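Next comes the chain:
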Amino acid sequence: MSPVARTKSSNVVEGKSYPAPLASHEDVVKDPTVFWDTLRRFHFMMTTKFMIPVIGGKELDLHILYVEVTKRGGYEKVVAEKKWREVGNIFRFSATTTSASFVLRKHYFSLLYHYEQVYFFKLQGPVFTPTVSFPASNPSWRPELALVEYSPQKN
């Protein structure tokens, strides 16, 4: 179970429950086709918006992002251990992409966090969301630094 599901720093999203996983975490990590299929279906079942972010003119490979973050213990552990720069190095963004860590964290949270809860932590039941995802008191979290485009969802 995810650490957030066990702490008082999380909120239950009223009326929403996690769907059952359609594949194992191992299959999702091993096969990008399984990942993309289960991720699209997950967003459809959760009735959440799904678009692939574009960073530095290239679509963000959400499969690689998911694999790298779960390899390090998941979103909350990567946040707690300040490993976003390490994750970002995998993508070899251009030197002009100065807000890569922020952008990766933001997109992971919006597109992969709940997916991670189901597929990595095997969470079932009500949807949980951490109370604080981007601390406003931290001056390094300035949303105006995140210049991101989106590409339409591929079918």
About this structure: Helices lie at 25-30, 32-46, 62-71, 75-80, 84-89, 100-119.
